[in-house]
Every structure is written in structure tokens, then in C-alpha cells.
Amino acid sequence: MRSITRTLMFLCLVLGTIFVLFPFFWMTATSLKVEGKGMTFEFIPKRVEVLGPFKLQVGTAPEGKMKNDLTELTSDSSFTIGWSAPEADGITFEITDQDGNKKIESPSLNKDKNWIVANSLPSGNYSYQVTINRSWSAAWHSLYTLENFRKIALNPNYPFLKFLRNSFMVAFSTAFLTVVLCALAAYVFAKKEFPGKQVLFWTFMSAMMIPGMMFMVPQFALVTRFGWINTIFGLVVPHLANVFGIFMLRQMMIGIPDSLFEAARMDGASEATIFYRIVVPLVMPSLAILFLLTFVGQWNNFLWQLLVNTPESDLITLPVGLAMFRGQYETQWEQMMAASCFSVMPIVILFLFTQRYLIEGLTAGGVKE
Amino acid sequence: MRNFILFFLIAILFSSCGGARTSADNEIVIWETYATEEHDEFVKIAEDFEKWYKAEKGKEVHVRIERLPFADHIQKIKFAAITGTEPDIVRVDAGELIDLVYGQSILDLNKVDPEIETYLKTFTPPARETVRIPLRQADGSVKTGVYGIPDQITGVAVYYNRKFFRDKNVPFPPASLKELEATSPKWDYDRFYKTAKALTDSSQNIYGIALNSSLWFTLPFFNAFGTDFVNVDADGKFRCTLDSDSGVAALTAISRLVWDKIEAGAWLPGALGADRGFVNQKYAMIISGPWNLKQFENAGVDFGVALIPEGPNVREIETPNGKVKVGTSTNVGGTDMAILKTTKKPELCYEFLKYLTSPKVHARWCNALGQIPVQTLAEPLVNFKDNPALAVFMEQIRTAIPRPKIPRYGVLEGQIMVPQIDRAFRAGNEEGVRKALQEAVREIDRLILDDVNISR
Fold first, then answer.
1. Rounded CA gap, A78 and A72, in Å?
2. Residues B306 and B355 in one domain
């Protein structure tokens, strides 16, 4: 019974993992697809593809064709039936007349790499079906390509590496400075006494109740007044006052016994030494979480980074760059996903390096020793 | 390590300080939101303009093109206007231009060229109307200004999967006004319903039609039924009239497809959307625009494009082959190029916009990118032979009725119409549709038109 429960639990976890990872899988698969296939549910390349049947009426032009269909009326009773599939190993056309009689035609590849067969048909209605045979390699290349990554990396109008560098710069600076400022403020609110401390703290807290969009206009006005448009100050400074970070670190620091500080003072430690040698190591998991949350938040921040940079700015960041693939009506899914694959890498690396702290931070206080 | 991090931070903080933008007397700055291919073509046209200007006027000019993502471009322009970092020309969505005009950021081109209306007559009528915007004046009168030059136009038609039609032996719908006139039975809402029903095979998850519940995609149906969106009442005030009998009939006609489970439910949150379902051969017909032509071709879908079915609003329209009576219609989308009021070079900006929309240059743009011309003089120069599906959209655009000229399109669409169209689709009867439209009208009057009725 126990093994059945465990197996079921394991299955549930596997299903859950697949469900959670599906968007990542979809992003990666789409980034590798040829143009136009991004929105299809096709993931396994087809070696044999059957298209049609398409109607053919002798004496009239074909009723409308697919992109690769080269079928043409060449005279009143003659057609050339053709298909463009240079990657195919072979093609057959199955022509069916109005009585249901079938005729198989095997065309050859002409110098333009099109499969063409000339046909003279008695008057009447026909249909033709195209069967394309490909090698595994050709089938793979008809669905998957690395071209999207090449376009992203080498397009001179789309300086992807610069966007990546800018995003890293902005996210790292904001996260690092936020952690420093929040830790200092939290230490003061947790362990120091001064007049009006509670009032000031709860005033800060009340700022958490105001939606972020409400800050945008006054922050933008200040940034403009300071001349920080198109500068890293404009991108970083408005996000440094993170009230949630102060609150979270304060709660962690309150839990540090005062006796530790008294012992350190008796040993002659300065305020800076106490902060650096005692407080910081003890709240390191929370600092790591705050760093991570801020980094990810800034890495994905779109609107502020769009507003503070004019289009000619050297500080355009990745979210703004990625949005260029999304037009008014259409989206270049394949290239957008290729760029997204690059853009998630720093986040994945960051998570790998900080996962130990992340787990410690999330479970802190959960276990009583 | 600690020192390195500190040095790194200080270095990046001080390396990136910049200043506000400046532009020289002979330079115009344009913010555009084109897709990559369009951007590349636009850059070439701007370079050609510089050469042409030097040859014609003997002066050097420089066109500085700066690309914005389409997402939130209006926010960006508004914020730039606050800080004085705005360009000389902006390319904006036709529906959003009105917001900038109401915000008094856009130059009325009558001030640059008193003959602008004559020039505007060379544009296709629905595109022309997107830049002619009426504003209520202090004395209560309404004055229409010209606040830009149309640079792109788009609309929707019916995409259909030919394989599904062949398999069920259903004739293809008409692809031109000529075919529409000749087809029998008429391509009206009754035939549209029967066609969709014949193509539906819910056991295979294949549906005859997939709909969007947005206003933009529903406007062709309102137009075909002759629904006026906004009218001026006896007091000279704008009032929404969407809940008229024709409005209810239009929305009921398409809601029936949903009620009878002929429609796929593509409008429901989380459902397989219309475009994606069409690519994956689940939906036999969808309503969409020319922007999807390339994508559907590349995805290997065997599709055709047909006109929107005819409704009772039969009217006479101008075509290159003379006047035709039609009951079909589409909506109007696209973009306009507008000159900001703060520009110091309005004449030069206007000169560029006229060059951009001159017949030869505009035809070159349409041929390179497979787009519908906005400039009627460019039509004979556009090659539709290699792109027959685009020709269907061109025919459909001739039947377009301009969308309501009211601001806050985002509110109108997302906050008011989408929930009410959803409500109509779920209603199950005509009375429910009427109630949804009455609620929509109340909200439109309250959230949008009350402000429009204030004199400016």
C-alpha cells in the first residue's frame, strides 16, 4: 500500500514538473522552429507528408494555390503540376479523374530545384495529391533550425548583446544597492531606538499599500528634473527604496538575540563591524532572496525602462528590445523565443548559484531547534 | 572581490550619464513602431528623401529614425511630451491618435498646408477619415482638423481552410466584389451560418468559425448591419447608439454561431485562439487581417481569403471599375504619421510625409512589404498578381466604414466592449444581447462621451 502511495505521489510530481516546465519547453522548441511553424503544434518532424487533394479543372487556371504549389495551366488542355520542395528525397503526384481512376506521376527535380511534371489531360475535373518523402535529416531541417539564434546575435539593427549588458547592469546595480540600503535601514528599525521610530516605520509600511503605477508619474517628474533621462541613475535610483525589503530584513534581524551585539561591543567591535560581521552573515539567506527578487523584477521591468530611455539611448534594455519583435498585429514568435532563451540564461545561472540561500531563506523560522 | 564589485558599480554608474536630446535645424526625428522588415524599408525611404531633398531644394537634411516597441508606445509618447524629449514626428495607431489630439500634442496640418484637405482626397476614404478628427470648440460648434497623414491601412476579411471546404463539398465564398455580386445563393449571414454549420465536426474538435470577442473584430458585422456607433443629438452632443435595433441584430447574428456551438469558443479565456486554431487546422473560418498572410503560408495551411458576408446595409461605393452596391464591410485599422505641436520644423516634417506617401514611394513600400496602399494614386503601381489574397483585402477595404472617432480606445475595447460582447455570447437569446449593448452604451456615455462633449 505504501509503495502504491509513493508511486502515485511520484507520478503526480512528474506530471506537475512536466506541467510547470511546459512553457520553458514551448519557448525552446519555438526558438528552434523555422519561420511560420512557431504557432503550430508540430514537434516531431514528418518524413512523409501528404498534401491535398487539390482540384484541377482542365481549361481553367488552378483554383488557388499553396505557397509551394507550382501547378500552372500551360495551354487549354495541359498542366504542369509542380511543387517546390528542394529538401525532399522524392515526390509523387497522385492524379485522380472524375471517375476515381488514379494515376501516379513521379516528377524529377529541375535545375531550379522544383519538382515538375508536364501533363496533358482530357477535358474534365481532376484532383491531385502530393506526397513528399524526406530523409530524417531533411525532415528535421524542414521543422527546426538555428537560424533564429543567428539572426538575433548578428542583426546590426538589433544589438542584442548590448541589450543584455544593459539589463545586467541595471538589474545587478539595483539589486545590489537595494540589498545594501534595505539591510542598513532594517538594522536601524530592528535594533536601534530613536524618537518617532514606530511612526516612521509604519509610514514606510503604508507606502506598500499604494499601487506601483501611482509612483510612476512623480518618479518620472523627479528623474526628468534631475536630468536623468537616458542615464543609469534614472533606471536604477527610483527602485532603490524598497519598503518590502526593509520590512522583510527587519523581521529577520529582530530575531537575532541582543546578547550577541552586547558581547561584540564588549569585545570592542564598532557599529560597522557588528553589522558586517554579525548581522550580515546571520541574515544572508534573506539578503540573497531580496537580491534575487529585485534582480528578477528589474530584469523583467518593461514600462519604466521604456519611459526613461529615449529610443536613441545606449541603455535600452532586454525587455524593451524583446518587445520589438511584437508588432501592432503580428509577432515574430520564433525570433522572440530565441531572444527569450538568451534572456533567461542569467536568471537560471543566478538561481543555480543562490538556490542554497533561497531554500534556507524560505525555510528560516520553519524549524525550531 | 569586494573591491572589484565596488569598482564595477561606481564605474557603471558614472560611465552612463547622458544628456537630453537635441536635434539640428536640418534634422527631423521620427519615432516609429514598424516591424523589422518595415523598419529596414523605411530607413531606405528616409535616405532617398535626403537625396531627393538635396536635389530638389539644394539643402542637406537628415532624417533620424528611432524605433519604439509597439507595446505602450502611446504611454512613451505622452511621457516624452511631458519632459520635452518628444520627436518631431510620431507614427501611432489610428485609434490612439485621437488621444494625442485630445491631449493637444498634435499639430493640425491645416496650419502647415491650407490645401491639406485636397491632398487628403488622394487617400483611400477610410484611411483619410482616421486623421480627420472633430473637436468640440468653446462656442459649442464642432471643428474637424487634420492631425496626420495615414501611412498604413488594414482591415479584416474571412480566412477559410480550403481543405475543409473541399472535404465537405462546400463552395468557396466570394473573393471579390464582382464574385460577391454574382454568387448564388448570396453570401449573406444566412449562408455564412449554414457554411459554418456544415464545416463543423465537434467530434473531431473542428469548428466552422472562431471569433474574437473584441469590438475591433465585431465592427465589420455592426457595419454590415448599418449600426451607427455615435450620433450627434439635438443638443449637439455625441451619444452612443450601439444599442439600436440594427446593433442588436448584428450582434445577435454572430452570437447565434456561439449559441448553436458552431463557433469554437476561441473567445473564451485560455481557449485556443482564432489564429492559432486556424494554423493548426482546427477552425475552418476565422476573421483576420493581411498581417497573417505570410504566417499562414509559411505554416503550410491551404487557405483562401473571402469577403465578409453581406448584411442589410447595402450601399453604393466607388471602385476603380465604377460604382458598386455592396452589403459587405470591414473595420479600419492602421497607423498614421503625426507631427508634434512642439516641432520647430513643421514644413520639413510635412515635406517628408508627402514624400513618404507619394504614389511611387508608397507603391514601392507596398510591393516590398505586401501591404494595402493607402494612397489611391499608388494602387495602379502595386503588384497584386503575385499576391492574390492581398487583392481580396484591397477589395474589402473599399467597403470599410471608419471606426468611431472617440478617444480612450483602450477603455472602449478592454473595459467596456469585450465584457459586454462576452456577455452577449453567453446570453443565449436576443434579449440578453440587447441588455449587453444597453449596458455598453451607458458605460460609453459615462466613461468616454461625457468627456468628449466638453468644449475644447
1. 9
2. no
